[in-house]
Amino acid sequence: MTGFTLDDLAALIKSRRDDSASTSYTKTLLDAGMPKIAKKFGEEAVETVIAAIADDRSALINEAADTLYHLLVVLEARDISLDEVLHELERRTKQSGLAEKAARGGKG
What we know:
Layout lengths: L5 H10 L9 H8 L1 H20 L3 H21 L4 H11 L4 H7 L5
């Protein structure tokens, strides 16, 4: 197993805020604003779904990595930490998934 974590990736993305757009794809996304960032995240999410349906293991791994990266860029652009998201997931795991979903009105 790798020692690289989502925390590492989130920190790397945060550090790119101060980079030059000429040398950093992340900075280019952040400079482009939320519409571009969200569009890229959506594209990667759809590509992940397609790879999963196609039962293409290698493509699914690659697309999942792209999706996680772009999700973390979305969060960074909105100044939401990975810890905040993990805290919410932890809160939700204190009850069954069905009960949690019902509490949200069945959404999601």
